[in-house]
Amino acid sequence: MGRNETYFAEVALDRALAGHRLSGPEILSLFAADPGAVGAAAHEMRLRKVEPTLATFSIGGNIDHTNVCNVGCAFCTFYRAPGAADAYAMSPDQVLEQLHRQVAVADVKEVMIQGGINPKLSFDWFLTVLRRIKSDFPDMHVDFLSPEEIRGLERQTGRDARDIMTEFQANGMDGLPGASAEILVDRVRTDTAPLRITAGDWYRIVDTALELGLYVPWTSQVTGLGESHAERVQHLVELRALQDRDLDRGGRGIAAHKVWPMRLNDTRLREVIGVRRNDEIIEEYIQQVAIHRLALDNITHHRAVWRTMGYQTAARALRAGANDLCGTGSINAVDSVLETHAKEAPRVSQKVRHGVLTCIAEAGFVPAQRDAFYQVIRHHEPAEIAEARDALQVAEGDWMRGGFSYAGDPVLNPVAKVIRKRA
Fold first, then answer.
1. What pTM value is reported for the model?
2. Interhelix angle for 92-106 vs 329-340, to 10°?
C-alpha cells in the first residue's frame, strides 16, 4: 500500500470516528489498511452505538421445512433436486411437532422458518403453517421465509410480493429475514447461481417488507464467491441506501447485519474458485466485520458468527465491531430432531449455552440474553459464567479451537444426517 493510499485510509478512519459517513472509495481503502487500526476504530464505533459493557445473544427456534429447491445454487450443499433419495418436505403437522419440541427444549419465543424453493408446496401450505403456529403459540414471533422464497411464490402464484406478504402478515408472519443476499451484485450472482433472485428483486422485496411494517431481523453479506472488493463495497453502499430510505419514511429499518465467509470445500465451486487456508479466512473475516461496522453506520447491531467460525474467532469479532453472538437457532433444531428420532446424544443446547456465555465473557463483555428486538431479557451473573467455564473445561482452552460445526463436532456430525432424513 503506497503512502497516498495509507494516508487516504487513515483519513477515512478519522472521518468515521468523527461521525462522518464513509464514501464508497473510502470504504474500499480500508481493505488495504492496517487491520489492527480498522478493528480498533470499529470497536470504538461499536462501544458508542450500543451498551458498551454487554454482548448479547438470543435463543430462537429454527425450522428448515424443505430441502427441495429448483434454484440449485452452486455454493449450496443443503438443496436436493425433487425425487432425490434424501429430499424432504415437511407437512404442517411436522413443522408444528418440531416447534413444540424446540419450545420444550429451550423455551423459545421466536422461530425462523425457511427452506428451499419447492413448487409442490402450495400457497395454502404456508398459510396453514402460519395459522397453526399462532393458534398454538399466540405470542411466538415468526420470521418467515426469505426474499428468494417470496420471489419463488411470485412466480408460482402470479401475485406480487406486497400482496403475498400482506396476506402472510394477516395470518401470523412477523418478520422477513434478509437471507439470500450473499453478494448483491448481479455479475457475481449470475456466475455462482444463475437462477438466484436478482439484486434488484432482493432490494424490492425487502423494501416492500419494511414498508409493510414487517420486521427484518438481519441481513448479511457472504464473501468468497469470486467477488471483487469493489463489488463487496457496492453491496454495502446500496444496502445502506435501502436502510436510509426506510428510516427516512419513519420505519424501524433492518435490525442487524452479519458477514461471514462461504466455505466452498463441499460445493461445486470448489474447483472453480478454490479453497483458501483457514487462517486466511479467519483474518479476512475479522477485517470484514470491522469494515462492515464502519460502512453500515445506520444499522445498529452487528453480529459475530460462531457456529462456522469457532468461538475464538467469534470472541475476536466481538472486539472488532460486533455486539451480538448469533448461531443458536439451528442448535435448538438439532436438539428437537434428536428427540424426534429418539437419538441418544448429549443435549446440544446446554453445551452451546455454556460456550456462548464463555465466549462473550472471554471477549471482555457481560453476556446478556435478548429477545427478537434486541431488548435484554437477563444479564448472566459471574457465578453462571464460572459454571459455564468449568463445564467446558476451559482451562485447557479446548473451547477456543472451533465452533460446533456439523462437520467437526462429534454430536452434530451424525445429527446433520438425521436432519436430512427427517421427513
1. 0.90
2. 110
